[in-house]
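Bumping with the actual sequence this time:
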Amino acid sequence: MLEVRGVERSFGRMKAVDGVDLTVAKGTITGLIGPNGAGKTTLFNLIAGSLAPTAGEIRFEGHAIGGLSPDRIFRLGLARTFQIPRPFPGMTVLENAMLVPLQQAGERFWNNWFRPGTVGGQERASRQRALEVLGFCGLGDKLALPAGQLSGGQQKLLELARVLMIEPRLILLDEPAAGVNPTLMETLVDKIVALNKQGITFLLIEHNMDLVMRLCSPIVVMAQGKVIFRGEADGVQRDAAVLDAYLGDVPA
C-alpha cells in the first residue's frame, strides 16, 4: 500500500532521513519506533506532504506522492494525526468534525444563494457522518462542548474522528498514547483494532513499547535517520543494533 524507496531529507548538512526504505502492507498495523532524533516524525512529514524529500520516491497505492501537498495526499485517502492534537479550540466537537469533508459546495459563498439545496444536502450528510464517527470514538456526549475543553486523551480521539470523516485507507498515527491516561489509551487501542478489522491500514509512531508490542506487526526501527530493523516483536527485543540504538554500545 505504501512504498518508501531511498528517501532522504536534509536540513543543511544534517540528514534527518538517510536513504530510508519502508513498505506498509495493506491491512497491517505497522509500528515505527526508535530513539528521539531518529527521524521518525520527519519521515511522517515526508509521507504526509508537510515536507518534500531531498531524494527518493514515495508511492501510495501506486501513486507517486513525494512532494505533493498535504491536501492532495489527503484526497487520495492517506490521513495523519499529530502527537499534539490541533483542534479548533473555540469550535464545538461536532463542528470540528464537520469541517473536514473536502470540496463542499458551501465553501463558495455564492452557492448558499444559488445552490441552497446542494449545500444543505451536503451539510446534512456531513453532520450524519460526524455523528457516526464521534459516537464510534466515544465522544457522542461531547458534541456541543468546545474542543478546547476536552482532555488530552479526548482530543486524541477527536483527531482520530476527524480523519475518519474522509474514510481513509491508510492512517499515520503520531504517538497516539502520548499524554493519554491508561483508561483512554485502552479505548484508543480498541478503536484502532476495530478500524483495522474494518480494513483500515495503520502506520504509527509510538514510544510506549508495551502498546507497540501488543498492537503492531511488523515493527520498523529507525536510528540516526536510517532503518536498522524490520520484523516482529520478539526479534526487536533481541536485535543487537536495536539495543545499541536505545541503550548505547552493547556487548556482542
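The C-alpha cells above came from a reply further down the thread. The CA atoms of residues 7 and 56 lie 4 Å apart.
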